[in-house]
Amino acid sequence: LRNNESYNNRTSFSASQDTTYLNQFNTRNNNHTNGFLRAGFTYHIDEKNDFGISGMGMVGANQSSNKIIYYQLNQDLDTTQYRIRTTGNEGLMCFYNAAVDYKHIFNKDNEEFSASFNYFGAIRDNKSDYHNWSQIDDKITENKDYQTSKSNDNNFSLQADYYKKFNKDSKLEVGLKAEYKTDNSIDRSFDENMVEDMEQYNPFYYTGQIYAAYASYGNKWDWFGLQVGLRAEETLTSANEVKRDYFQLFPSAYLSFQLPKDNELQLNYTRRINRPRGWIINNHVDRTDPTNISYGNPLIDPEYSNNLEFNYLKTWDMHTLSVGAFYSYTENVIQRVQKLN
Questions:
Q1: Considering the entire predicted model, what is its pTM?
Q2: pLDDT at 299
Q3: How does DSSP assign 243-268, residue by residue?
């Protein structure tokens, strides 16, 4: 059970119209009930081979209510419109996961191979009803509308990794990973007579494929440690037939310098990707709050971040001192864009 309250005060400026004000007060109550189950086992075939299967399932129901009170004011701060919008929501959701793992040990603690297959699925079914009450001067209007949302997600991944330790300070890791994801949803809207508004009908179909190969090598000498890696990724996506295809390299480097009297310097660099997903790319128009309409953009590009970190460490018998500095630069920053309609 979770309850919250919020408010939003907005001032709208326009060159052709007078300044207006909108004050909103929002109360929301949420009630979630979930059941969760997980099971798995590992079979030790022999000293060098392990095989495992695991699964997870979750079934849940949620109910929520929302009330928004609007005060529309003119430039003299006189109330020109008073509105109330109440929302009732109920839904069911189901998450499930299955995984198969295999590991082969060539030499204990020195060389091994592992592979895994993972599947994750989710089903959601939500219904919302909206009650609108409005007063302008002495005129009162009242109406209702409804919305349904159904979605089905599937995610498959296959991964293989190889690890080789040449000696106590030198090691190599390589791997391959393939991932395939679908995200399908349909949102429908109806008036108070349950006549569907086809302008708000929104089917959303998303597929994503990611193919990656990666390798890292680490070694340590008397006073210097090094670990370098490279990950190559090819991404293919389609969101409502808007297709995207991009290839990127993601290098990483970790350097350490052992100095006299238990002092150490570390310098690290990584490059990462943040792919847009969910509501960010779904162009469904969310009208839960008619004065704050939102929708996603299927054409949006992913973010790329370049991270640089510098650390100094000093060690005594019973104490450790660590001082660090961090810098991050992000390309194609994903952010909300607001406009007045």
A1: 0.83
A2: 83
A3: EEEEEEEEEEEEEEEEETTTEEEEEE
Cα 175 off chain centre by = 24
Going from the C-alpha of 34 to that of each of 31, 66, 106, the distances in angstroms are: 10, 21, 43
Question: pLDDT tens for residues 261-300?
Answer: 889 999 999 999 998 887 888 877 887 787 888 888 888 8
What amino acid is encoded at 27 in this protein? T
- Which amino acid makes up residue 215? A
Question: 291: which DSSP letter?
Answer: T
Q: Do the Cβ atoms of 146 and 170 come closer than 8 Å?
A: no
Query: In this structure, how many other beta carbons lie within 10 angstroms of the beta carbon of residue 139?
Result: 7
The C-alpha angle 273, 274, 279, rounded to 5 degrees, equals: 160
**Token reading at 338:** 């607001």
Contacts of 17 by beta carbon, 8 Å cutoff, 6+ apart: none
pLDDT for the residue 168: 86
The pair of structure tokens assigned to 306 is 């370049």
Helix or strand or coil: residue 290? coil
Give the other-Cβ count within 10 Å of 296's Cβ. Answer: 19
63, two tokens: 């109910």
Encoded tokens for 278 = 């969910």
